[in-house]
Amino acid sequence: MKVYIKSISKVLLVLASGLLLTNCSDDFLDQDKLGEETSDVYFNSQEKAVASLTAAYSDLKDYRFGWFFWAFGETLSDNAVYSGSDGDNAGFEPLKTFNGTADAFQVRLKWQLCYRGINKSSQTIEGTEAMDDELFESGMKARIIAEAKVLRAFYHFELVRAYGRIPVLDHLIRTADEKIGQSEIDDVYTFIISELEAAEPNLPVKSSYAASDLGRITKGFAQGLLAKVNLYAENYDAAKTWAKKVMDSNEYELDPDFAHIFSFDGENGIESVFEIDFIESDTETSAFRNNGNFQTLFQLPRNITYGYGINQPTQELADAFDAAGDIIRKEATLLTTDEVYANEIPQEVWDWYNVQTDMTVANDSLDQWKATLTFNRTGYYQEKIYVAPENRAASIRNNANNTRVMRYAEVLLMYAEACAQTSDDENARVALNEVRSRAGLSDVTASGSALIDAIYAERRLELAGENDRYHDLVRTNRANILPYWTEAKKYWPVPQAEIDNTTGEIIQNPGY
Amino acid sequence: MRKIACLALIMLLGWQVSWAQDALVKGVVTGAEDGLTIPGVSVVEKGTTNGTTTDFDGKYQINVGTDAVLVFSYIGMKTFEVAVGTQTEINVKLEADNVAMDEVVVVGYGVQKKSDVTGAVASVDFEDLESQPINSVNDAIKGRIAGVQVMSNSGSPGGSISIRVRGIGSVNNSDPLYVVDGVPTSDINFLNPNDIASVEVLKDASSSAIYGSRGANGVVLVTTKSGKTNTSPRVEVDAYYGVKEVLNNWETTSGSEWYAIQEEMNKTRTSPIDLSQVDPAVNTDWFDEITRSATVQDYNVSVSGGSDKLTYIMGAGFYDEEGTVYGSDYERINARLKTDYQAKDYLKIGTNINIQSNKRHSITEGSYHTGTINTAIKLEPVVPVWKNEAEGIYDYSKFTDYPNPVAQIEYDNYRTEQFRLLGNVYAELEIIKDLKFKTSYGLNRTVTDTYNFTPIYYVNNNQRNDINNVYRGYSKSVYQTWENTLSYHKTIEKHDIVALAGFTKEKSRSEWMSGSKNNIPNEDEALWYLDSGADGDLASGSASEYTLMSYLGRVNYAYDNKYLLTASFRADGSSRFSDGNRWGYFPSVAVGWKMSEEDFLKDIEWLSILKLRGGWGQIGNQNIGTYPYQTTMDGNSQYRYIFGVNEDVYQGYVVNAMKDENIQWETVESLNIGFDAALFDARLEVSFDWFDKDTKDMLLSIPIPYYYGYESGPTVNVGEANNKGVEMSFNWRDQIGSDFSYSIGLNVSTYKNEMVSLGSGEPITGGSYYLGSATRTEEGEAIGYFYGYKTDGVFQNQAEIDAHAIQQGGDNSGLQPGDMKFVDVNGDGTINGDDRTKIGDPNPDFTYGINLGAQYKNWEVSAFFQGSKGNDVFNAMKTHLYKFDETNKHKDMLNSWTPTNTNTNMPRLSGYDVNDTNRTSDRFVEDGSYMRLKNLMVAYNFPKRLLDKVKLTSAKLYFSGQNLWTITDYSGADPEIGQVSSTNYLSRGVDIGTYPQAKTYVVGVKLGF
């Protein structure tokens, strides 16, 4: 055997091995995630805590949250039918006839979206709580947590009034083996109320927020929501107290012009307690990237606009306005077929039509225009969410109109109801008549149960199209006026997928 | 292959030292077939270490005694022995040895004689493919290796391919690892097939375990051509030019047929469509409108050669292919240089550099809403292409919102340009005899530029763009490897040992960024750059990194050239996993027995070689994302909200996905048993393999309760899948007389795929198309089988409806005779989601390739067939073409049920379909079996006497055709259906308007100087 290089090779070998060994350290395998922060280091500044909170708000803007906000709040009631195309309408039919199953995607999405909001709120609360106080401007830490708590309470409230017994998520789940069962309805309300009460002192009133913070959760909304939740929990004294705090805050008044509330100019106006804000972001048109109000697209008249013509108000609702002699609010709530034609058929067509002499030809031509309005099942459309052609966004999901979640008028009606339930008829009538007088209606003088009925009737007309009617009917034990409704179906089924995904901690509601 | 071995041999023998001998014998060694001299032949005195090699001219001289026997050996040639006696000049003609098993094959981190291989390693020698218009490496191996399925996801030039080795290993990424000259890459589509010497596929765990955590789905090793030692410079020029025709079988209705069907459906529609808006005489064949006869051309030139110490090859190539669909094309330029230099007796160095750039225009694919081909199939024929062609105004559908595909192509300016530098440098040091240390640095650097410009256009409200936009994307990826290996080879009497130990480090970094702006002042192409835009600035970017550090080792031991043992081990540390979970260990062992070397078989005349082999190993799949264990903050645009009087948009951040910190790689454990045989003077070669491959710890996203509030659950190692199968190949080659030779090759493979466990997971749906999902993955079934309702013809009368299980409403009251009948699979009297069942399987019963070749004098002819049997296709396009809507209709709809046309399976035309007739069902599942004449080639080699006059050494003219003939029952354009896209793993066999393959006719020349 021939050895070519002896000592040199040995030196090289030693060097090479040395090189290898020094390179064998495990540090080489430590790679940080680039471009995205990992959760363990995220919460390190006030800005980031605020950005976490922004995400907790964002679920309000999700079109699916909005969809089932009205589809269950309004469409299930006697105020509206689902409508849309035959397929759209037929798809909602099982729910509308209270024959829906736990498999329905609507049932699943509402549940899913609310829990997403809860999760994000908990991320904010727990992330912010763990931060050093010095990282915040004065009051900001408490305010961020308070806003997140109200959001978490609001999402729970949306769930409990729909599904009844639900799991209460008072913390963020971090490992996939944790199980949380459903709480009794009373306990859910107790949790929501305690969350709101904890948050309320730390929130600014509407007027003390900076202009750049308009649209955030205010002390007024926390108090209004406390009034509302206490009504659902039938704690009328508490409801009365909280509603009164809103009234005494001098932050809110009724807008003298009812229709103005729902105009672009009326957004976040003097009567507004909480709104979900939308804008037209013209470069962002997809369903999740955009910042527009998808619900407007759903509810605009079908085919004559780009809308889907869904959630059409009923004749019954129109009749209720008429019976009350309520002209102002009917006009601002119900968009009639003729109004649709007047607004949506171009002015040139009308101008041409108005000078025609041969009305057979003229009417025939006009009828062709009118025929583009399809699947008009009731003759009415939701006017509160309607956007006239001149203001309408070019891209279909991008209309900028806000969704009104709570108005001062509702606070007055809640106060009235809480007073009436606690035999304080006098104060009840004062609050009720304040709302009626804005609508151009005469004062109610009734008392006792007649007064309560008058308040219920007022709620329907004042808040029609604002997604509370079905829940109100259930809450006040009047849902049996709805065809097919039964006490057994008082709460919706728990989504079947949730039962399938869990291992026994979630059980189906009775009746399904 | 041969040349590498030759090179090694020369080096080895070059070090031998001659002793003074009795007499000088000299001579010339030539090939028996061609009479050409052969350099580098080993000439050894039998029983001694005395030997030499032939020089550049095939000459040798050696001092030997008169009683000596000289042994002439050369890889690929039969060994020749001659007694010296008194001869002083011995000229030898060596005959070719057809026993291909003595070729060497490339295995991980080294080469091995094929006859010593104990694992399942298959090889494609590209010399055999010389006269075929192969556009990519993938194309070259398709159908040629048993057990390797190559599926085109698209026939688009430069389109993606998925390769599956031995079935589907995972519901996640099942792509094999590609290694080009030792450098791992994510795909091999970019390579110029002309540069390739061979492709080896390591199919089983015993052979791929040396690649540890990346070998689970097989390893594809690509070796590029090298120069040959002691050869004068050889210049090769190859060129071909071809014409392509699209394959299309869609049987869609004419304008008048469509009109008649719509008139019929209008009778039952609640809102009839206004047919007065269209003219039934218009008859647009949209598929025709978007397709063309296209061209393909390829030019290559290379210079190669070598001295006794230096070899080199330089080459350049240009490839240009038009797609058969307008708006798609691909252009590729390659250049390369590969050199190896024996700098010192103990030091060898080399470089290998590949530069590649390509440009690609592509059309919209993979979308079941607006995919260009998808749209062209489903758009109604009564829509004219143009409203006013002179003014460039397109027409559009009056009833649907699908885009005009011709306009879509015109307004789409998306293109990518890619530049790649791939190569390595190495030094190999022989420390002591037989012990070599090799260190090699490899680089794979890719830059991909994307360009787009969206002009202002208006076709109708659904197909419009009001603001023009310029987009620019840039991505860069750098992959670096540093490999260090020590190898040792020693033969002591009957023991032969090859040992390898190595340490490697690899690092990948990739980065992406893009920007776009709006309102470019005019649409001149010179302004399609970001600074031309006035506003609407958008920018985004991301980056990722990962590292891998490994120790590897392998021992090949042979005793008496009969008993073989291979054992390997690899330890991989990967940055993709959390501390404590980073290291994985991947062992393998395999044995072989060359039975034909045993005395009891040695005398069997017709048996040249018989080798049994068996192997076991464990390997991993770390192709599971770069940071799978880290919980991250997501700043998706969905998490924004609006605050303030000015309604400003604020970005929110959130954890939206739960992560499992303890995530680990998927592990594959496989067992392989097989044999290789050569019979009848090695005219027949047979190879057989049986395998059982278990994928354990498969990563699956486990469902979490919705009340957790996360958008997705953690991915955890819970799943298990199994693939079992058999692979066989037969090759027969023979010569009749001196002028005629022929060969027949056949390979067949089959596997059975089963999802053994999903852990706690729910069945996974996939293969989405516009009405739902076509595939399902659940325990006990094949991954991604087709799942839906079964149909049983149509109801012929009311009595049949009354007798049938409830499939509509609560009482079937909406049904009429002529409606589709669905099967109550579970027999509970109601047809609902629970009655969905297996309606098809995209996995074939078997796949095969048939290779026929013949040579007569100067003529060559070859045919290559390739096919698949027993696989199903989910024809999602038919869900449009059968639907009771306004889109284009299938000609089958003309045979719909009516009271007078009852002998049909097509339901009545219903404008109000309460029966959900087009739900996912077996109506859309078709037999996707096919046999295709993939290539047919006729070539003529110009005779030497002609060539000498023009100083050529070789010249070949050939005509070749691809995809000339296909036998299939599939009714779509092309039965070769891969996945919807390269990352949509559970969409195999779903046709949402796949870009079909083309028929290609090519004429080409190959010249050698």
Automatic annotation (TrEMBL), chain A:
Keywords: Cell outer membrane, Membrane, Signal. Belongs to the SusD family. It holds the Pfam family SusD_RagB. Its main location: membrane. InterPro entries: SusD-like_N, SusD_RagB_dom, TPR-like_helical_dom_sf. Residues 271-512 form the RagB/SusD domain. Residues 1-22 form the signal peptide. This is RagB/SusD family nutrient uptake outer membrane protein. It is found in: Cell outer membrane. Residues 27-231 form the SusD-like N-terminal domain.
Automatic annotation (TrEMBL), chain B:
It is a multi-pass membrane protein. Pfam families: CarbopepD_reg_2, Plug, TonB_dep_Rec_b-barrel. Keywords: Cell outer membrane, Membrane, Receptor, Signal, TonB box, Transmembrane, Transmembrane beta strand, Transport. It is found in: Cell outer membrane. Residues 1-20 form the signal peptide. The keyword Aminoacyl-tRNA synthetase does not apply. It comes from the Bacteria. The keyword Ribonucleoprotein does not apply. SUPFAM superfamilies: Carboxypeptidase regulatory domain-like, Porins. PROSITE patterns: TONB_DEPENDENT_REC_3. InterPro entries: Beta-barrel_TonB, Beta-barrel_TonB_sf, CarboxyPept-like_regulatory, Plug_dom, Plug_dom_sf, TonB-dep_OMP_SusC/RagA, TonB-dep_OMP_SusC/RagA_CS, TonB-dep_rcpt-like. This is TonB-dependent receptor. It comes from Marinifilum caeruleilacunae.
